[in-house]
Amino acid sequence: MKEGVKEGFTNFTVVRECSKTNGRLSQFELSNKVDMPTFMPVATYGAMRSVPVDQLDNQIILCNTYHLRDLNRNIKEFMGWKQAILTDSGGFQIQSLPCEIVDEGIRFTETRALFTPEDSMQIQRILGPDIIMQLDDVVNPMKPKERHAIAVRRSIEWLDRAIDELDKEKEEGREKETISDFSESTSFISTVVTETSSSSENQKRHRKHRDIRALSHKIGQILFPIVQGGLNKDLRSHSISEILQRNPVGVAIGGMCGGEDKMAFAEIVEYTVGELRRNGFSGPVYVMGVGYPDDVVVCSALGTDTSDCVYPTRMGRCGRLFSDTGDIEITNAGLRRHLQKHDLFDPISVDTKCTCKMCTYSFHYLLKIKNTPNFCNLGSVHNLRYMAGLMERIRDALACDKFDQFVVEYFRVKYEKKAPGWIKAVFRQKFKIEI
C-alpha cells in the first residue's frame, strides 16, 4: 500500500442500480463510509451558521477553500469533526468579488493579486479534507457558447496544473508550509504574471501523462475534476473526454444552477451522467450547488451520487421549513393557514410529521421567536434533518428497487396532481414514469 493511504481509500462500490431510472445505491470509502446518494451540508468557514458541529448527523460535509485560505491547519482538527469533508476550490465564491479571469488564474481587481490552481491545491493540502476540488473557470450557464468553450479549455489546463502541483509536492517530499496572510505581497497568492502560458508550455503539459487515481493514492486525498460546458452538449462531451483521459476517481458537474430553465438543467445533468457511463466511468458523480428537495430527488433519478447547497440552512434561518407536503413558512400568513386546520398551540409536527426539537413547539411560539438565534438553530437543524431523512428514503427505495414508486408517491403527496411541468416532463420523457 502506498504511503498515506488508508485501505480502500478510493473504494467506490455500486451496491444496486435502479431498473426504472438511472439512480443507483452506492458506498464511498473515505475516512469513513459514505452511503450514496447523499446530500452535503455546507460549513463554508469550517463552521455552519447557527448549527454546532455536535448537532450535525452527516457522513460528509463541505467546506470552502477560499474562505479558509488563512486557517493554516487541518480543518477536521479545527472543527472537531471526525467524518469526511469535501473542500470546494472557491472558484464560485471568488467570482462574486471584483475580479478578472485570465489563463493564469483569478486576478483580483483592487489588489492585482492572483489566485491560481496551484494556490488552491496548496490550501487544500493543508486543510486535509478527504476530497479536494480543482479550481475551475465558473461561468453562468446562460452565457454565450464562446465563453463556455474558453471555460472548458481553461478548466482542463487548470486541472493539469493542479495535478502537477500535487505531484510535484509529493515528488519533492517537501513538508507543508505555513501560509502567510492573504495579501498582495504574500508569496502564497501569486503576483501578476503573463496571462497566457506559452504554446510550448501548454504542449508540454498536454504531452505529460496524468493519472488522478494514482496521484490520489499517493497523497491520501482524492482530487475531483469538474465538467464544464454550460448547456452545450458538445462542450460537455469534450470536457468529459479530457477529464477521463486523466483517470479520475470521481467527477463533478459544474456550471449549473445559474438561473437556467429547469428542463435544460435536467437535460444536461442526464447527458453528462450518461456520457460518463458510456465512456466506462463508474465512479461517484457530484452535481454542484443542488439543494432544493425536488431537485435532489430528480438528480438522484438522473444518476448523480451527491450534491451540496446552502439552501436548506439559509431557508431554515428565514423560517421556511421543509416537509413532505410542501414548505411551511413561519409568517403571519402561514399562521392563518395553519389555524384553518389546527389549534393555536398544536405542535408544528402536525404539519411536518417530524420529531426534531423545532417540531415540538407550536406555530404560534415559533412565530414569536423568529429572527432570534434560537429560531435560526431550530430551523436549520430541522431542514438538515429533513434532507438527511429524504436521502435515507431514497437509498432505501433504491435498495429494494422501488425508487420509481417512491418518486411517484413523493411528488403526489407534495403536489397532488399539480407537480411542476418540468418534473413531469423529466420522468415521462426519460423514464416513462407518470407523476
UniProtKB/TrEMBL annotation:
It comes from Enterospora canceri. This is TGT. Keywords: Zinc. SUPFAM superfamilies: tRNA-guanine transglycosylase. Pfam families: TGT (PF01702). It comes from the Eukaryota. InterPro entries: TGT-like_sf, tRNA_ribo_trans-like. GO terms for biological process: tRNA wobble guanine modification. GO terms for cellular component: cytosol. GO terms for molecular function: tRNA-guanosine(34) queuine transglycosylase activity. Signal peptide: none annotated. NCBIfam families: tgt_general (TIGR00449). Residues 21-170, 211-413 form the tRNA-guanine(15) transglycosylase-like domain.
